Amino acid sequence: MWVVEHLVDLDVLAARLRSVLEEWRRWAAVGPLTWRDEAATWPQPITSDRSDVRVPESLGFTLRKHATDDEFEAVVWTGGWADVDYLLGGEVYSFCPEFRDIDGAYAAVVKDVEDFLS
Question: Which of 71, 81, 84, 96 has the fewest CB atoms lying closer than 10 Å?
């Protein structure tokens, strides 16, 4: 079994993101925060209920711009990277920012969302 170093406390990241998620609702429909449990058996389910997760491995969310088909998806991994994809004007863009701590994770997510919304 492959074990990932836990560099980012995803509960702390979720708490920090809640205020900006509310702000982003002005420009986009914001999906619920989703979690994946590192301790769950394969295939590991994705859930929006944090209480179902013993060891958070990833935290994700989606955005869909109002009145468009433009979509954004981010999955932040406790190991220090994020999978970020968005669809803008029919084109798909993918990014994989890396970071070493909660501040870096927060900054990367906010930057990617702001780039998508601009």
Answer: 96
Q: How many domains does the chain have?
A: 1
The residues facing 81 across adjacent strands are 77, 98
Q: Chunked in runs of 10, what are the mean pLDDT values of the chain (118 residues)?
A: 84 97 97 96 96 97 96 98 96 97 98 96
pTM of model > 0.85: yes
State the amino acid at position 47 in one-letter form: T
Supply the DSSP string of 21-73, one letter for each residue. HHHHTTTEEEPPPEEEETTSPSSPPEES-GGG-SSEEEEEEEEEETTS--EEE
Give a yes or no: residue 2 inside a domain: no
Alpha carbon 64 to its chain centroid, in Å, reads 14
